[in-house]
Amino acid sequence: MWVFYFFAALLTLQAVVSLRGGARYLSYVQREMARKSPDFTPWASVIVPCRGVDPGLSENLAALFEQNYPAYEIIFVTDRRDDEALAIFETVSRVPRPFGHVETRIVIAGEAIDCGQKVHNLLAAVKDVDFKSRVLVFVDSDARPRRSWLRSLVGPLADPRVGATTGYRWFLPTKRRFASTLRSVWNASIASALGPRGDKNFCWGGSTAIRRSTFESAKITDEWRRAASDDFAMMRALRRAGLPIHFAPDCLTATHDDCTFRELVEFTTRQLKITRAYAPEFWLVVLTSNLLFVSVFFGGIALIVARASVGLSIALPLGLVAAIYVLGILKAYLRLRAVSIPLSQYSRELRRDAMAHLLIWPLASVLYLFNAIAALFSRRFNWRGIDYQLISPHETVIIKRNSGIGTQDSE
To answer: What's the Cα-to-Cα distance from 278 to each of 109, 234, 274, 395, rounded to whole Å?
Structure first.
C-alpha cells in the first residue's frame, strides 16, 4: 500500500506541474493571438507534398489558394504522374480568385530510394522553387489552413534570429468514430507541448516556414538525405545551428479526417518509432511518464475494487485517483480553451468533441504506453503505402512498396 501511495503522490505532483503547463500554454496562445503579426510578406514558395487523395483534398487545396497574402507560388509535388491528386490540384488551381497573386507548378519527384518518400518529394520541390523566393513554406495535403495562416506563419521570420516558424494540427473527426476521437485526444497533448521556448519547440512538417537563406545555411538538405522524417530532421539541423523555432498559435491547423482502430494504432505507433530514432530523450519521457500513470491510475482503480470487495476502507486510494483524474480534466479544459481561439471557426466541432477530450484522456495514456513499448522492439512502419525500416536518423531502408497509393495521414 505504501508503495502505491508513494507513486500516487508522485503522479499527483506530476499532474499539478502539467496543469501549470496548461495554464502557461493558454496564456501564450492568448498573448500571441492578440499580438499584431509583423508586416513581413516576401515572395514565398508553398510546397505541398502529396501521395494519394486525402479526405477533403479539394477543400484543403482551395484553402491554400485563398490566403491573405500578396504574392506566392504553390508547388504541388508527388512521386507519380498517375496520382489522382494531380487532377484535383489542376482543377482547384483553375478557379479564378479575386485576391492575391498565386503561381502554380507541379513537380514529379519519382520514387524514393534511400529516404522517406515525403522527404524525397520535398528535396525535389526545393530544387524547383522560384529564384525570387525568400521563404520556403511546407504544408501537408491533409491540412486545411485559415486565410491568415500564411501571413501568420511567415510574419515572425521578419526577425532573422528566428530559425523557423511552426503550427500544429488539430484533428476534427468528420464521423463520430471512437478511434477517430481517441486519435484527436492522443494528438492534443502534443499540440500543447509547443509554447514560448523556441529552444524547446519542434517543427511540424505540416505547417512550417523558414527563410530560404536559413534553410541553406543550416544545411537542411544534408539532414534530409536518407532521412525518414522531414520535420524531426529539420529540428535537429536548427538546434545544431542554435536557431530557435517559433510556435505561431494562429497556424494551428484543422485536419478533417477519420480513421479505423487499426489506422489509429498504426499512426500513433509510427510517431513514437520515429520519435525514438530522432529524439530518444523525448521517447524515454513518454515511456516513463505514461508507465507511471497507467500503473498508478488503473492500478489504483483495481486496488479500490479489491479493497471494497473485502470491506476495507477505500477513502484514501479513491481520493488520490480522483485527484489525478480531476487535474487531468482541468489540463484538458485549459487546452481546449486555448485552441478554441485560433480555431474559432470550428467552435461547433470543438464543443462536440469537448467531453471526449475531458473524459477519455486516460485511454490516450494507455495508447501512448503501448506505442512507446512497440517502438522499443521495432523501427519498421508503413507510411502511405510504403514499408520502411528506420535504421538511424541518417539511414532509411525502403522494404516494400504496396501496389496502391496510401491515403492515410501525412505525418
So the answer is: 25, 11, 6, 11
- AA identity, residue 108: I
Mean pLDDT for 333-339 is 97
Asked whether the beta carbons of 288 and 373 are under 8 A apart, the reply is no
Which spans in 117-252 are helix H?
A: 117-126, 149-154, 178-191, 212-217, 220-224, 230-240
User: Rounded to an integer, what is the distance from CA 187 to the centroid of its chain?
Assistant: 7
d(CA 22, CA 12): 15
pTM of the model: 0.91
Using CA atoms, how far apart are residues 185 and 171, in angstroms rounded to an integer?
8
Cell of residue 18, nine digits: 502539467
What's the maximum distance between 2 C-alpha atoms anywhere in the chain? 77
Query: Euclidean distance between the first and final Cα of the chain, in Å?
Result: 42
b/e burial code for range 381-394 (CB count within 10 A of at least 16 → b): bbbbbbebebeebb
Q: How many residues does the chain have?
A: 411
Closest CA to 208 of 247, 257, 160, 161: 247
Q: H-helix or E-strand containing 138?
A: strand 135-139
Question: How many CB atoms lie under 10 A from the CB of residue 344?
Answer: 11
Dump the DSSP string for 317-338: HHHHHHHHHHHHHHHHHHHHHH
CB of 166 closer than 8 Å to CB of 202 = yes
Cα 35-140-211 angle, rounded to 5 deg: 55
Inter-residue contact 59 to 144 (CB < 8 Å): yes
Place of cell 501549470: 20
Q: pLDDT digits over 84-109, tens only?
A: 999 999 999 888 876 668 999 999 99
CA distance 97 to 74: 14
